[in-house]
Design goal:
Blueprint lengths: L4 E9 L2 E6 L2 E7 L1 H11 L4 E5 L2 H4 L5 H10 L4 E4 L5 H10 L3 E4 L1 H5 L2 H10 L4 E9 L5 E5 L4 E6 H11 L3 E6 L11 H10 L4 E4 L5 H9 L5 E4 L1 H4 L5 H10 L6
Parallel strand pairs: 1-4, 1-12, 4-5, 5-6, 6-7, 7-10, 10-11, 11-12
Antiparallel strand pairs: 1-2, 2-3, 7-8, 8-9
Helix pairs in contact: 1-3
Amino acid sequence: MLAKRIIPCLDIRDGQTVKGVRFVDIRDVGDPVELGAYYASQGADELVFLDITATHEGRKTFTELVKRIAREINIPFTVGGGISELRDAGALLAAGADKISINSSAVRNPRLIDQMASHFGSQFVVLAIDARGDDHGQWTVTVNGGRIPTEKELFSWAREGEERGAGEILFTSMNHDGTKNGFACEELARLSEQLTIPVIASGGAGTMEHFAEVFTRGKADAGLAASIFHFREIAIPDLKDYLRNQGITVR
């Protein structure tokens, strides 16, 4: 078994880390550079920084913030939000990011995935998918921070993303986001079975047991969470010890 990754996610708005429930009820958490450095010292495997209003507000991700983050941490980090063309990604890579995450822009222009993968390499490109499921088990892809539903369906879009060159899929279940009731394990397992690239689980982490479940039943390659780490409900060293005791390989 490949080692499973633990990834804190920092949603950025106006230069501060924030957290909401199901993409609303947003509240401030703290300075993203300080939080990133703290998580790196705690043993996080990677970090994800998402400028959650960049696309909706029609602006670019802050490259200066990325430079500050790169100076303070020594683990890989992914940056997303407002990336709509090659030069956006190039600027973030030059600023110190290890990967870029594209979401709304890829839905609107799928060829952007091909271009990013061809220019920078698939390992640099994370396709983030925010989707909401209905009572019939249909999962609709959304854009603009979950504000706008699209005609795309979760599983077919993830397969297309892989075919176009994405190196990883970051799937956030909007049904589970911020609820702390567990990840969307059934959908994650289906994604993992259909794809050959890593799948990062996002949305719903509330307990250490949820991580064990997402790595076993959900077959995810990495577990991403925000509030449980931000509010010190679960410490990363304790989580890794717990997972090891469950027979799950972690870094």
